[in-house]
Amino acid sequence: VRTRDTTPPLVYSRIFSDNPSSSSVAGPGHRIQVTLDYSSESLSRLDVAAFMIGGVPRSWEQVSTNYSYGDILLEYQVSSDDTTGVVIYASVWTDEAGNTFTCEYGDNSCLQGAVTVDTTPPVAELISVDNEPSTNQWISYENGEGGWNTWENDATDTSKNQIDRSVEIVVKFPEYVTIDGSLIDSTCVEANVTNTTALMLGSVVSTCDSVIKSIAYLVVNGVTEVHVWVDIRNYEGSGILVIWIKSGVATDLGGNVNKALVLSEPLPDITTIRN
């Protein structure tokens, strides 16, 4: 007597990104992949019931039909044209007898992992300008991952008695980013300079000596704050302090980098102090 197999297979699979920074985030150039973690019996077919990124349908590349445990079966390479959003994926698995098992999107009992595609560059927002930062804010320190990360410029500078004014600029990236402080620059210009292209190219006459003394950033609840402390020297009268956040200062988990941004703040009228 030959028994007919009418029992659907039980299949566990996993979706993830090959992004070394986060398996749950995929940016341009990263690959979204699906592997087979377990099957109760031999499989003969895998059909994709749904695959969308940010609500936009996409097509997988099937890279293996062996259906062996741990094999990468499906793959999709993210491009800069993809929409930022959650990856929705549902699958239909067929065993050798033709029985099917459907794994719906969001069913954690059969699909482990989740991926969000991020193709949007991080954008800085100016939060505050403090023309009289307290002295204890100048202490630089590091306290491990998620804590302050600092850079010190002109650490051997002995001309502190020539500082006219210290200014603290605080900008925010509304997401987790890593910061390259070497790509932040500053200058002072006359109050009537409005050409941001000229500012970015540095083709303006500086009206003071501005030195970035310290840069620190802190990530709290997925928001990254960047604090820039600037020494203003040889400053007489009024003008504008310009902070140039160059492209590449901030890199998010998807590998996207910020576009260049020029922040300008009027400097107060002060009396130059020199000792």
Question: Could you characterize what this model shows?
Answer:
This protein has 275 residues and is an all-beta fold. The chain is 2% helix and 48% strand. It contains 1 helix and 21 strands. It has one helix at residues 196-201, and strands at residues 11-17, 25-26, 31-39, 43-53, 56-57, 61-62, 72-77, 85-95, 100-103, 111-112, 116-117, 125-130, 149-152, 163-173, 177-179, 184-189, 209-220, 223-233, 237-245, 250-252, 261-270. Strands 2, 4, 5, 8, 9 and 11 form a 6-stranded mixed sheet that branches. Strands 6-7-3-1-10 form a 5-stranded mixed sheet, with no helix packed on it. It has a 5-stranded antiparallel sheet with strand order 12-14-18-17-13, with no helix packed on it. The longest helix has 6 residues, at 196-201. The protein is rod-shaped, with a radius of gyration of 27 Å. Residues 135-163 and 270-275 have low confidence and may be disordered.
